Amino acid sequence: MAKAGIVSVAGLVWLLASTAHAQDTGRDFCADRPGKGSPPCVLDAGRFQAELGLADRAWTRGGGTSSDDTSFGTLELRLGLSDRVEGQLSWNAYERIHDKDRASGATADGVGDLGLALRWSLKNPGGDGVSVALQPFVTAPVGSDQIGDGTWLGGVILPVSLPLNADWSLALSPEVDVRADADGSGRHAGFGGAVGVGRSFGPVALGVELWADRDEDPAGHVTSASFDLTAAWTPPALKDVQLDASAYVGLNHDTPDLELAVGVAKRF
């Protein structure tokens, strides 16, 4: 836990250590955080962006059992490879899952798997107007036991955004992927995504989204769903920095009752 705290604090200091004269760019600042969906915007070629989940905790209660899932230092690195393509690398520095029932408890902790992705803009790479992208991804099994999936997995996301009027925008991010079977014997399909609306009030952006996921594991199909609230603030003096917070409320018994997360993003 102490090590994870050091990682998070060091990451925050690093991300906020920006110069007063930020590098100019033709595209608006656009972060993947917050929320469960993926935006279609792509970084300018040669630009670099780091996004850090400082803390994330989910609580699940019911049926005489409880589960607490806590993460620190979830990092995503993004690099503009061309005018329409960016590369992404993601990794969770520390996660702790504590499950408890009436008779006993169990805890697992460690690092997460490594995610690798490409986002290819099909229309409007800056995210303005109607914007569409294709995002294939894979995860490499570098995570700790009971934290990582233990095998190579992958899928594809289709991020879409469009303005509804001068103030509101709509975002969609349907996803199809391949997941590991619970018993470790093979793989199965999963699909889902998020749909949300958002509005900016000067440097503050607020959003509401619905997220759903269907896991077709042969051991038992699981459907998860949540109602999500997000907020992001770009300080006027730091045009390439964003601070964010989000709350996810579970809509059924297969989804955590409540999840809270805070993070920061910095473009270089």
The count of strands amounts to 15
Work out the strand percent. over 45%
CATH architecture identity: Beta Barrel
CATH class: Mainly Beta
Query: What's the total helix number?
Result: 1
Shape: globular
CATH topology name, in short, is Lipocalin
Uncertain runs are 1-10, 12-23
Distance between the termini: 29 Å
CATH H-level superfamily = Autotransporter beta-domain
The tally of structural domains comes to 1
Largest sheet composition: 15 strands, antiparallel
Return the average pLDDT rounded to an integer. Answer: 91
Radius of gyration computed on alpha carbons: 19 Å
H/E order of the elements?
A: HEEEEEEEEEEEEEEE
Estimate percent helicity.
under 10%
- Based on secondary structure, the structural category is mainly beta
Describe the structure.
With 268 residues, the chain is mainly beta. The chain has a single domain (2-19, 38-267), classed as Lipocalin (Beta Barrel). It is built from 1 helix and 15 strands; from the N terminus they run H-E-E-E-E-E-E-E-E-E-E-E-E-E-E-E. It has a 15-stranded antiparallel β-sheet that branches. A hairpin with a 4-residue loop joins strand 2 (65-80) and strand 3 (85-100). The model is unreliable at 1-10 and 12-23 (pLDDT under 50).
